[in-house]
């Protein structure tokens, strides 16, 4: 705490009031509601839910409002709240092949079972500012004005098989299938990260990791800092049911639906003496519509499998400890921002040390100068 700052606790309380005032902004303008953030800033809400490890759109929107749009701070707020919640149990693994797809594309096959669905995306827009959005009020783009063909497509979503199953039929791509003796995955939200880390733990860490960090590292893997050549096998976004087994009923029941984005990256693999040449996968999964995060996660996941696949470790993007230890934005932000806290005693000791070293350096310089003068006098004599 800044107890040494003039005013002490009163100064801190005044800072809180200033923060509230700054967050509210000009009171002549209508206040931004949590509902508006939830509905109109859905991509920001999706990121906060994913990296905050809580699927709750309203709480994520509230955190964004409280943080004045600082998403890393909002993620911190959501994680902190998460620690106060009771744990009732674990849901069953979701089957994304049963997803009610809203958007689904593949860069590996033109014609895929179920077809390609472009959905709502910025991918096909021109990156030009739309000044029409400066006009106040709704533009009227609601269900009543949506073309019937689009309404029909939106209501006709159905389960679609994964694209990688086309390769799996020929045995050309690895497939991870659960085994009865497989250990239960750990829970990073309750247990600290430890090494060596299993792939399940790594994927949890990457899902909670900072999108910007993963994006940069995924970019690095494409620029040669990993032995990978990725293809976007499939990227899909949609709604999936969540099931939980209830002891009282003795069976699993649906407890709700969530929106998720899944990415499967396909990579070349030369094989080995035991494994024939095949394709391998990198995997990404995130809450809400989070394509960039899921893609970056899949790229990094594949790079981190280098040792498992017998590839040469030649890049930080393949170093599991380096990547997992520095991907979390809450930890990174806390460690960087702790430098704002008082370090008076530490700095005074450093300052005193530098002064002593400078004095010693000056004294040594004077002694050296005297020795040089003495040598010159002896030579002159």
TrEMBL record:
<dbReference type="InterPro" id="IPR008773">
    <property type="entry name" value="PhnI"/>
</dbReference>
<dbReference type="Pfam" id="PF05861">
    <property type="entry name" value="PhnI"/>
</dbReference>
<protein>
    <submittedName>
        <fullName>Alpha-D-ribose 1-methylphosphonate 5-triphosphate synthase subunit PhnI</fullName>
    </submittedName>
</protein>
<feature type="region of interest" description="Disordered">
    <location>
        <begin position="360"/>
        <end position="381"/>
    </location>
</feature>
<feature type="compositionally biased region" description="Basic and acidic residues">
    <location>
        <begin position="370"/>
        <end position="381"/>
    </location>
</feature>
<feature type="region of interest" description="Disordered">
    <location>
        <begin position="173"/>
        <end position="192"/>
    </location>
</feature>
<dbReference type="GO" id="GO:0019634">
    <property type="term" value="P:organic phosphonate metabolic process"/>
</dbReference>
């Amino acid at each position: 705490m800044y107890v040494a700052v003039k005013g002490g606790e009163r100064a801190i309380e005044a800072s809180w009031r200033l923060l509230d005032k700054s967050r509210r902004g000009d009171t002549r303008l209508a206040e931004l509601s949590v509902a508006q953030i939830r509905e109109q800033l859905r991509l920001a809400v999706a990121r906060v839910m994913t990296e905050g490890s809580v699927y709750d759109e309203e709480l994520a929107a509230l955190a964004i409002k409280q943080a004045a749009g600082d998403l890393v701070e909002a993620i911190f707020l959501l994680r902190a709240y998460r620690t106060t919640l009771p744990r009732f149990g674990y849901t069953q693994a979701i089957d994304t092949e049963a997803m009610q797809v809203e958007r689904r594309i593949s860069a590996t096959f033109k014609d895929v079972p179920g077809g390609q669905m472009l959905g709502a995306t910025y991918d096909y827009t021109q990156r030009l500012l739309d000044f029409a959005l400066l006009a106040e009020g709704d533009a009227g783009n609601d269900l009543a004005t949506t073309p019937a063909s689009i309404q029909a497509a939106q209501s006709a979503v159905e389960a679609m098989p994964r694209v990688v199953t086309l390769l799996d039929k020929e045995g050309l791509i690895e497939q991870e299938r659960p085994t009865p003796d497989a250990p239960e995955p750990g829970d990073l939200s309750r247990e600290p990260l430890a090494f060596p880390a299993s792939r399940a733990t790594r994927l949890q860490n990457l899902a909670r990791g900072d999108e910007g960090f993963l994006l940069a590292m995924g970019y690095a893997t494409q620029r040669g800092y990993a032995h990978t050549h990725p293809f976007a096998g499939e990227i899909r976004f949609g709604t999936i049911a969540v099931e939980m087994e209830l002891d009282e009923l003795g069976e699993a029941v649906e407890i709700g639906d969530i929106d998720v984005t899944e990415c499967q990256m396909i990579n070349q693999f030369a094989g080995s003496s035991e494994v024939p040449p095949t394709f391998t996968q990198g995997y990404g999964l995130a809450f809400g519509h989070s394509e960039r995060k899921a893609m970056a996660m899949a790229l990094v996941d594949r790079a981190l499998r280098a040792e498992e696949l017998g590839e040469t470790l030649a890049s930080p993007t393949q170093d599991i400890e380096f990547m997992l230890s520095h991907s979390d934005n809450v930890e990174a932000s806390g460690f960087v921002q702790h430098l704002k806290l008082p370090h008076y005693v530490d700095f005074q000791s450093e300052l005193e040390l530098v002064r002593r070293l400078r004095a010693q350096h000056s004294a040594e310089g004077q002694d050296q100068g005297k020795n040089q003068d003495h040598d010159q006098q002896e030579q002159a004599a």
